[in-house]
Amino acid sequence: MGKRSELSDAKPHMTPPGPQAPELTLAAASPSRDHIRQIDRTAVQAAARELLRALGANVDAEALRETPRRMADAYAELLTPQPFQATTFPNDDGYDELVVARAIPFHSLCMHHLLPFHGVAHIGYLPEERIIGLSKLGRVVELFARDLQIQERMTTQIADWLERELQPKGVGVVLEAEHMCMSLRGVQKFGAKTVTSALQGLVRDDARTRQEFLALTTRRSHDQ
Ligand code: ZN
Prior knowledge:
The chain is an alpha+beta fold. It has two domains: 2-34 and 87-223, GTP Cyclohydrolase I, domain 2 (2-Layer Sandwich), CATH 3.30.1130.10; 41-78, no CATH class. Helix content is 34%, strand content 22%. The protein has eight helices and seven strands; from the N terminus they run αααββββαβαβαβαα. The chain has helices spanning 2-5, 41-54, 67-78, 134-145, 151-166, 180-183, 202-205, 207-217, and strands spanning 88-90, 99-110, 116-126, 130-132, 148-149, 170-179, 194-201. The protein has a five-stranded mixed β-sheet with strand order 5-2-3-6-7, sandwiched between helices. Strands 1-4 form a two-stranded antiparallel ribbon. The radius of gyration is 19 Å and the shape is elongated. The model is unreliable at 1-33 (pLDDT under 50). The site of zinc ion (ZN) has 6 residues, from loops.
């Protein structure tokens, strides 16, 4: 728990990105190598059984007998990122334009309700001396999505990871997601999207680069 709580101060802004994107103060985000969660499946099963019972379910009914185990398996899967090697390469050709991966699908679990949120991530960076394989950008999203999350924190974690691994001239991350805790309960705004962004370096400070990144990432999904 302690390791996670230090991340909770990151403050990306919650509105569609604009020129006044604040400077992000990033505490040490979990590096992939330390990002290992211990899940006690036996305890999860026992707790799931208690939860079902508390919800008024007949946990001894045939149809529910395997449900605690299935719940434990499901949560374990949703909360365990696949380890991967963040291979980077020297930028030998001196590529100095934005690299953007658009509409990377993801799903995660909201830490406030343990309900899913899902959507797409747009990631861009302006290379300096290192570049990274495009498929790895999807893995980075996955790395931070398989966690009890809030969207704002996940956004800054991805940006911070790229900053640390690539030391690029700039980084931009935009997440658009629908939260089941908003769609299915409370205000019940079905289909409403929450947009978060983290812009750093020249993607934040250079007007042309920022415009280019935002133009590439704020197109409507059906335009992609
Ligand atoms: Zn929620």
